[in-house]
Known about the structure:
- The structure is a single chain.
- The model is unreliable at 82-91 (pLDDT under 50).
- By secondary structure, this protein is mostly beta strands.
- The chain has no helices and 14 strands.
- The strands form five sheets. The chain has a five-stranded mixed sheet, with no helix packed on it. Strands 10-11-13 form a three-stranded antiparallel sheet, with no helix packed on it.
Amino acid sequence: ATSINEGDTVNFTGSFTDPGSVDFLDGLLDDADWKVSINYGEGAGYKTLSDMATTGSISGLSHKYSNAGSYNVRLKVCEGTEDVHGDEIIDGEGECSVASMTVKVNNVVPTVTITSNNGTSVLAGTVVTLTANGSGGNPKLTYLWTGSCSGTNVSTTVPSTAGTYTCNVLV
């Protein structure tokens, strides 16, 4: 199994061979193209990659995983369904082989920083705008302010009297 963090990309490679080059049913050269497809395990099904005329390496596959979880990735190679020999159309074997692997995507705890338009020390009655900047974790972060602040990722407050005001944000 491969283990990555949310938002990371996995690169995949593979290879395949065909042990028989002559179709045992009709004795003709078995040179049907192979159809290659991949299922990244996120519910979208197989994605057709290409037709390959020869056996060999499969490369250049990459996929970004945005959410934590365990994904069963499957690479499928099928022998073509038609093969042309001169004027004659011969059905390919149509056999498929599937290789699989598991990708474990780890949850990434978001980080947050707070910035202020007026610094950390202001006079009573001054408008203070705090901006929370979150990163990491799943897309579409949410912000929960506590203490003397409220809002989304931006909180505006006006301290009415001198004192210490505490604002916390949970992302």
